Amino acid sequence: MLVRQRGQQHLPPPQGPVTVRTFAQRLSPTPRGAHLARHLAVNQLHEWGIPHGSDPSEAVAVIVAGLAANAVTHGRVPGRDFELRLALVTGSVRVEVTDTRTHPRPPAPDDVRTCRPLDEAGRGLLLLDALADRWEVVDREPPPGKIVRAEVDVPGWLSLAAHGVGDGMSSSLRDSVPRPGRGSVM
């Protein structure tokens, strides 16, 4: 679509990835809620055409399990739930886990340190860093709280779009945007 202004042609501003499907669920900040988050995530991916046991499904399962466990352990505020959000965006699955505690805040992707053998915590972020193609920690809007957001690239994305997998996915998504390299989520 071209936008015309006073005889000149201007391209519209570039757009970010197109979100095709979303899923959101608030869960109790308990071990049972964290366990349920993982099951909900893999079942939702399967419904979207990303089968159980596939590399993206397994990566998302581990990421959700770790982030949900962190939300329950480190982000718990009595009486407040945590939230799991999934989005099928152009080329990847975006995972967001939101809690209502601002601190402690996980380190940035470049600041994750290796755990020592006897450390009781810290492995979840190592797994996140290893399995996610991009991830970041952002402030929750409205405050208080934080969101840990990760993306896992989905090979064969174009075939999912072309076959309209899940609730009438549009085949017009064949024109995917170029994917940035590892780093922050866009």
Description:
It is a single chain. With 186 residues, this protein is an alpha+beta fold. The protein has helices spanning 31-47, 55-73, 123-131, 157-162, and strands spanning 3-5, 8-10, 19-27, 82-89, 92-99, 134-139, 146-153. The strands form 2 sheets. A 5-stranded antiparallel sheet has the order 3-4-5-7-6, covered by helices on one side. A two-stranded antiparallel sheet has the order 1-2. Strand 1 (3-5) and strand 2 (8-10) form a beta hairpin.
The gist of it:
This protein has 186 residues and is of the alpha+beta class. It is built from 4 helices and 7 strands.
SSE blueprint and pairings:
Layout: E1 3-5, E2 8-10, E3 19-27, H1 31-47, H2 55-73, E4 82-89, E5 92-99, H3 123-131, E6 134-139, E7 146-153, H4 157-162
Antiparallel strand pairs: 1-2, 3-4, 4-5, 5-7, 6-7
Keywords:
single chain; 186 residues; 5-stranded antiparallel sheet; two-stranded antiparallel ribbon; 4 helices; 7 strands; 24% strand; globular
Using the alpha-carbon principal axes, give the shape.
Answer: globular
Q: What helical percentage do the residues reach?
A: 25-40%
* Proportion of beta-strand residues: 15-25%
Provide mean pLDDT, rounded: 77
**Rg on CA atoms, Å:** 18 Å
Decide which structural class fits the backbone.
Answer: alpha+beta
Please work out how many helical segments DSSP would assign: 4
How many beta-strand elements?
7
Low-confidence stretches: 1-6, 166-186
What order do the SSEs take from the amino end to the carboxyl end, as H and E?
EEEHHEEHEEH
Distance between the termini: 23 Å
Q: Biggest sheet, open or closed, and with what strands and sense?
A: 5 strands, antiparallel
